[in-house]
Amino acid sequence: MMKQTEVGGTRKKVTNSLAIAALVVLFIAYMFPFIMVVINSLKQKRDIIKSPFSWLYTIKGLSFDNFVKAFTQMDFLNAFKNSLFVTVSATFLVTLLAAMLAYYIVRNKNVISGATFALMVASMIIPFQAIMIPLVSIYGGTLNILNHRLTLIFMHTGFSMAMSVFMFHGFVRGNVPIALEEAAYLEGCTHTQTFFKIVLPLLKPIISTMVILNSLAFWNDFLLPSLVLTDKKLLTLPLSTYSFYGTYSADYGTIMAGLLLCVLPILILYVVLQKQIIGGVVAGAVK
Amino acid sequence: MESKKKGKDFCIFALPGMFCFFAVVIIPFLYGVYLTFTDWDGVAQTKNFIGFSNFIGVVRDGQFWLSLLLTFRYVIVVVILVNVLAFAIAWLLTRGIKGQNFFRAGFFTPNLIGGIVLGYIWQFVFSRVFVNIGESTGWKLFEISWLSEPNKAFAALVLVSVWQLSGYMILIYVAGFMGLSEDVLEAASIDGAAGWAKLKNIIMPLMMSSITICLFLTLSRAFMVYDVNLSLTAGGPYGTTEMAAMHVYEKAFTSRQFGVGQAEALILFIVVACISGLQVYLTKKQEVEA
After folding, report:
1. Which residue of A22, A75, B115, B138 has the fewest C-beta atoms within 10 A of its own C-beta?
2. Architecture of A74-248 per CATH?
3. A282 vs chain B: nearest CA distance in angstroms?
4. Domain B61-286 CATH class label
5. A58-76: per-residue pLDDT in tens?
6. ipTM of the complex
7. For residues B229 and B245, is the Cβ–Cβ distance under 8 A?
8. Residue B49: phi, psi to the nearest 5?
């Protein structure tokens, strides 16, 4: 144990440096798996098995071959495009529709809007697993529209609707003054014009929160896309990682490079938008 | 005229969002309840009404109850570890040290990445890196891959989940700590509260709303664990780490017993809803205003 010093300041300094030491150790432990992936993605299988830690003294095996191999084998570009298309479309759709629906619910107090909102709040505790089987049965059997990216976008939109409406609802009620809208109506604006010109710009903070939360969820989702998309050309990144790993699981170097490729786009985005992402996640959780 | 306009507004503003929600969540959910009373196998054109047979099938499905029990064990361990660790790290982070934001951002990183990729990364760490440490140091702990032994595979699953979830909870606890009033803490110190007493009597009650949120999030996430389960252990070795969510999936889509699978999914849903509801009720009661 540290000896307690008489002077408060010194004692605080000592505990603070202990805190920093503890944090650094924990931080390295948290980062350890990522460090392993980065180091080993540059090495050949032989070197990886012999010593996964070595970096410097087996320069011989260091190369970017793994990345080239992984890039082509998991059809990275195609999967990336699919993921991007699905994530962007679904995020756009759910943000717009949820904002409109929440706005309608706040401004029109009637049985339908009240019941819909109550149903949405209640539905937020239903886990996906309780819905996936009938979902496949309806959309795969009766309607037969699985294996389309649009179906996946539609489902993502539907599943995030409740949570998004809930968040927009709280924001509209607290932060959008009705006086502004009334002024717009006096000027002759229709409801639609008022919403897009007056209300929507006021929603910017909550829109950015919802865009961050939803796009992260859509980008990383595995279970829903795995039920909807089976055609190899349509796979999103998590799905193509899954099938790629299943085929090449013993080829460590290529696997590590593939995993790194998967993680990279989101990490780059994180470095740029770190403040917004953390702020969005906190705002989303605390509500 | 006015009512016609109202109808148009409803169609533009409310209907599209409502349609998505009802078509994807509510209708499948209700249809799922109906499915539990039929003998549908996923392929057949016809579904016969078979009463409560599927629920009897659930009772007889010993594997389901084992996986549910295992899930309970997993949830208890994960929820406790995640919250204690995240609380402690958040406390360390909010002592006014430099680089606070950097650390916080770093700890959160695993949450940006999908469970499938995380599971594969750790599979490599457990089966190659740790085994290599075991070989070169002779540590018994790492002698063989953790993933090849039931108890250690369970521990591995817990470790990865704690690693992932704690970063998220750290954010919430940090926000909570930063919201604590300096005055109250100082007053407590002047009154002689320090160390454990201060934590238990002053800080914990004031942090209760953060604790409510974190417990709720960790509970619901841990109960529904699937991605990491699939990619890290795939239920192995010999199905000993198959959690409830994975069992439901296997029952429906691999064994093609959709009715029984759906009945199990509904039971799981009711269990989770009751437990999270109880937790929110209990911890909310502890919340105080500063």
Report:
1. B138
2. Orthogonal Bundle (1.10)
3. 6
4. mainly alpha
5. 556 567 888 888 888 888 9
6. 0.87
7. yes
8. -75, 125
